[in-house]
Design brief:
alpha+beta, Double Stranded RNA Binding Domain, two-stranded antiparallel ribbon, two-stranded antiparallel sheet, 7 helices, 35% helix, nucleus, zinc-finger
């Protein structure tokens, strides 16, 4: 082995096992299998005491300390257990609603320091999470994970009624309104209801006096299948 600046140098190990979702590569197939659970949200390791589930066995082992350690700290409001007092204190903020971490730029407050750090990226413009395929960058990891679905073509969200597939849960939720005929978005001026907020914005242009593009109106006649297509302008 060549000697470089007092250190032995070793060739980089090959990483033949590649995640099909995010493109990350691993040396061992077992490591890849554990990694994939981040995307599938599978949690096969279940605690026999409280039925909490975990993606990895070592996470379960760490959790078991809560049940075996008599000095564990109990939340009096929801009975959740914590090994360390500092973790219980952080948890209590979810009940009290206290937000002690304040952004120095805009004054917005947060219950946890980690959330404040993520928020600060919107002011600095920093986008540390980069797509290795197209180079697009994101301020947080979760948008990058969703972005990767565009490259992989994966559509993990399925409509249980018509089996149509969607990349994003939000798109599936909008699609479901077609089946339920629900129209949760209402015009505040005329009370007309719409399935999407985008449709409301387009409708509001009518009240603003803006002339909309021509569209096709389909009028049905007495004989089945006979249609008369007329072009008209919406005024």
């Amino acid at each position: 082995m060549p000697l470089l600046s007092g250190w032995w140098t070793f060739p980089k190990a090959e990483k033949p096992h590649i995640c099909e979702v995010c493109g990350k590569s691993f040396i061992h197939s077992g490591t890849l299998n554990r990694h994939v659970r981040i995307h599938t949200e599978e949690k096969p390791h279940v605690c026999e005491v409280c039925n909490d589930s975990f993606t990895r066995k070592d996470y379960l082992n760490r959790h078991m300390i809560i049940h075996t350690t008599p000095e564990s700290h109990l939340c009096q409001l929801c009975n959740k257990l914590f090994i360390r007092k500092v973790n219980l204190d952080k948890h209590m903020l979810t009940h009290t609603g206290q937000k002690c971490h304040v952004c120095e730029v805009c004054g917005k407050s947060f219950g946890r320091k980690s959330i404040l750090r993520k928020h600060a990226l919107c002011h600095t413009g920093e986008k540390p999470h980069v797509c290795e395929i197209c180079g697009k960058s994101f301020g947080q990891k979760s948008p990058l994970t969703m972005h990767m679905l565009i490259h992989t073509g994966e559509k993990p969200h399925t409509c249980e009624i018509c089996n149509k597939l969607f990349r994003f849960k939000s798109a599936l939720n909008r699609h479901l309104l077609i089946h339920t005929d629900e129209k949760p978005h209402m015009c505040e001026l005329c009370n007309t209801q719409f399935r999407s907020k985008c449709a409301v914005k387009k409708h509001m242009r009518i009240h603003a006096g803006e002339k909309l593009p021509s569209k096709v109106h389909i009028k049905s006649f007495g004989q089945e299948g006979a249609l008369n297509v007329q072009m008209s302008s919406h005024t």
